[in-house]
Specification:
The complex is a heterodimer of chains A (about 80) and B (about 150). Chain A is about 25% helix and about 30% strand. Chain A has helices at about 15-20, 35-45; strands at about 5-10, 25-30, 55, 60, 75. Chain A has a five-stranded mixed beta sheet, with helices on one face. The longest helix of chain A has 12 residues, at about 35-45. Chain A is globular and about 45 Å long. Chain B contains four helices and nine strands; from the N terminus they run E-H-E-E-E-H-E-E-E-H-E-E-H. Chain B has helices at about 15, 55-70, 100-120, 140-145, and strands at about 1-5, 25-35, 40, 40-50, 75-80, 85, 90-100, 120-125, 130-135. In chain B, the strands form two sheets. In chain B, strands 3, 4, 6, 8 and 9 form a five-stranded antiparallel beta sheet that branches. In chain B, strand 3 and strand 4 (about 40-50) form a beta hairpin. In chain B, helix 2 (about 55-70) runs antiparallel to helix 3. Chain B is elongated. Chain B starts with a strand and ends with a helix. Classes of the chains: A alpha+beta (about 80), B alpha+beta (about 150). The interface between A and B is medium-sized, with 25 and 34 residues.
């Protein structure tokens, strides 16, 4: 049984943008959750471990266990430092 | 009115205070966050802010709405700058007007504290010694160097 593939868009900021060299990328993946997706990207781009990050899906804060859908926009959020 | 805005232009408190002008308000409190010349013992040359703008505006607005639900003020505006900033420039401006001063002080404090804690904004400092770094991301950076 083959795992379902979905295509998602990822936007990168701050340290993740520097590490990957990308502001955005499209990913076709079998990852079912945000954390699975990050696992793939962590390897590819030498990202920090996910426990220091938050995640947003479709411009709202989400849980790492959230299911991904085709066409989702995913943003991994490093520790914030505004103000 | 309440609003939260992101801009890459120089902040203009003198222009924006008009938006909080209200004859029913006796108190007006503002906070300015300035770019300072040092952080954790390092001398800062200049810095830059980045925002995940769509979510930053949503979350910033939520913060002000939450403050409004428990503190009776009339108007609040927060504007945060992104891009490259020099020492002494304004990075963020919060203003609150209310009938009485107590609410204005409390709301202003609460808004800036929550903005710093929750809004997806990031600050990169550039130091005199040539180094640079994303604030609060030391753990991220060193962790992956050891991988």
């Amino acid at each position: 049984m083959s795992k379902q593939q979905i295509t998602v868009t990822i936007e990168y900021f701050a340290i993740l943008r520097e590490r990957s060299g990308l502001s955005t990328e499209q990913c076709t993946t079998t990852a079912a959750t945000a954390s699975e997706l990050y696992g793939e990207l962590e390897q590819r781009h030498q990202f920090p471990p996910f426990d220091s990050l938050k995640v947003a899906i479709n411009d709202e804060f989400s849980d790492w266990g959230s299911q991904l859908s085709n066409g989702d926009l995913v943003v991994f959020i490093p520790p914030v430092a505004g103000g | 009115m309440i609003d939260f805005r992101i801009t890459d232009q120089t902040l203009q408190p003198d222009l924006w205070r008009k938006e909080l002008d209200d004859p029913s308000c006796g108190g007006y409190v503002t906070f300015e966050g300035w770019v300072r010349n040092s952080n954790e013992g390092e001398q800062v040359l200049h810095l830059e802010y980045q925002a995940y703008e769509r979510l930053a505006v949503k979350e910033g607005l939520r913060i002000i709405q939450e403050a409004a639900s428990s503190i009776p003020f009339q108007h609040a505006l927060c504007v945060h700058r992104v891009g490259d900033l020099q020492l002494g420039e304004l990075a963020v401006w919060v203003a609150v007007s209310s009938a009485h001063r107590d609410e204005a002080f409390r709301a202003c404090r609460r808004i800036i504290d929550e903005v710093k804690h929750r809004v997806p904004l990031w600050k990169k400092e550039h130091y005199v010694n040539g180094d640079s770094g994303w604030v609060n991301c030391e753990a991220c950076a060193s962790h992956s160097h050891s991988a």
